[in-house]
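Shape matters. Shown next:

___
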Amino acid sequence: MSDNPFVGVWTYRSLLNAQDVSTDFNSLEFGRGTIEIREDVMQILCGTIGGPGWSLNLQGSREYGTPMRARFQGVGTVGGEKWVYDYEGYLVNHWPDGVQQRPAIVGSVIRTIPHSGGAPGTIAPAGVVASFYAVKAE
């Protein structure tokens, strides 16, 4: 068993930061996938994030504290073009009276460089920021 609480498989979801509460929840989706964080030397974070049709290699660091912090960058080639995203997340503290609480990371993600969008001829611009959460699967 690892002393690093970030090591493991996490179910990842990210949502656009819309301020209008009437925005349809399904239209807020920015991304979803699986994060796998592997054991590495102290303070180093490495692994992958991906889903159907995409995968990025993660490199970054983690810091002890309350809460614990992870900062990492995902880089990969998807559909023949480079994707780069930066992430900063915090391990949610355990609630003493929590019921079936799963370890979770909450944070923010930014698209660092532009890439093709979901529809033909569209661009997913750099600088778009979303909130994310990841729930430990194992």
Notes: The two ends are 12 Å apart (CA to CA). The chain has one domain: 8-136.
